[in-house]
Amino acid sequence: MEFPFQEKKTYSEWEVQYAWNRLGFGTLLTSTNGLEVEVLYPGRWNFEGGPDFINARLKIGGAELSGDIEIHNTPSDWFLHGHDNDAKYNNVILHVVRTHHCCNAASSKTPAIITVIFPDSHLPAFDCNRKNISLKKYSRGLCADEMVSLMEPTQLTTFLCSLGENRLNKKAIIFINEILTNGAEETFLIHLFEAAGYKNNRQPFMNLYRRFSTYDMSDHENMKVEAVIWGESGLLPSKVFLKCDNQMQHYISSLWSHWWKLKKDKINLPEMAWVKSAGRPCNTPWRRTAGLIVLLRKLGLSPLTHLLTIINQNLNTKEIINELINVFSCDDEMLGIYSDFNTKLKIAALLIGRSRAIEIIGNIVIPLVYAYSKINKNNILEKRMLEIWKELPSSKSNSIALRVSFERWGVRKNEIKEIVKSFPAEQGIIFIYKNLCEYLQMNCKECPIYSRFKGA
Questions:
Q1: By CB count within 10 A, which of 96, 104, 311, 314 is most buried?
Q2: Taking Cα atoms as reference points, which of 360, 386, 357 lies closest to residue 371?
Q3: pTM of the entire structure?
Q4: Per residue in 45-90, pLDDT tens?
């Protein structure tokens, strides 16, 4: 089929993605082969590798389909970007383009995927850039007007906290199984290593723990622990760099004096696959490893035992929370000023800040100790962990909680801090989004929460 060239206003792919993300339920489009395409859910905007939108729901020619969406300027961009040989794009069900025109014969090849030319009517004039667009990641749900209008902020907070407790119980069940399999202390260590990786380097840190766990650390010697972690991470430099100061050079020398004696033959072991993004120097794998090391200096290799001494103190709940935050907020006068062994930061920064400390407490410490209390039928400890959970403040950094509440549910910005002022409320939002929004592929009409408020 021939498609005449039509002059169109120039939009970037980011702008088209922005417009696609704002499409309402039931928006009708027409494919290049004449099929009606009804948008039931535009998908979750993906800011990482892979298709632009994940888990979209469409009705194409009357048949309901679920899959991914890719957006380009022209159909041939599919091949120019190498998507035809990339397995991440195998689930793409719709290719959205600005024009079917190809500028030369060499780029006239088109993919065998249903294609829609995105109409100008859905591209109003707006001035946006990548920074602004990223704030609109979550499309507005049908529940927005119902949930926010029928609840005062305090009621919404109570509702979210109750759902957050469901998420706590779900995590506790997982931890109970792991504790019964691996023991409480080892389970704790595994998850501390995992947490050090945040999202991008979670798997490398899990691999690092597996290697670390093969060494005999029964003497609990700090320098030995640090030498093995740095050595197995592959981040320990092969020689002392002249750019680092004397204190760091001495530290590297001490690490090597231990590592030479301890290191094992690494035949058939691959190098650690660190994700080294071009992001902020404070977020390098090196600094994540340094943060883990400083945390282990505080907790040792029996972290549960150490934390129970804090939790069981004769202190009120807020005082215990503050002590826990102090433990998991980590800094070091030497490691804290470097982004790797050879490069100093322009401005010193905490290795683990307050927000991340709260996330570790809420996602690991509380559910794990809560699970431990249930296994040991320790009702006093169980009650105390629930009290700590309920009073744990918001991390104020969870992008899902903040963005979903503002963008998908329409909570006014000035009310978000009041509604999401506690960690349980944050977890309640994540519980809804993960277990309902994503699970139902944003099919709001099947959501029990939407049905509850619609019938109120």
A1: 96
A2: 386
A3: 0.75
A4: 887 788 989 888 899 998 999 899 999 988 888 888 889 888 899 9
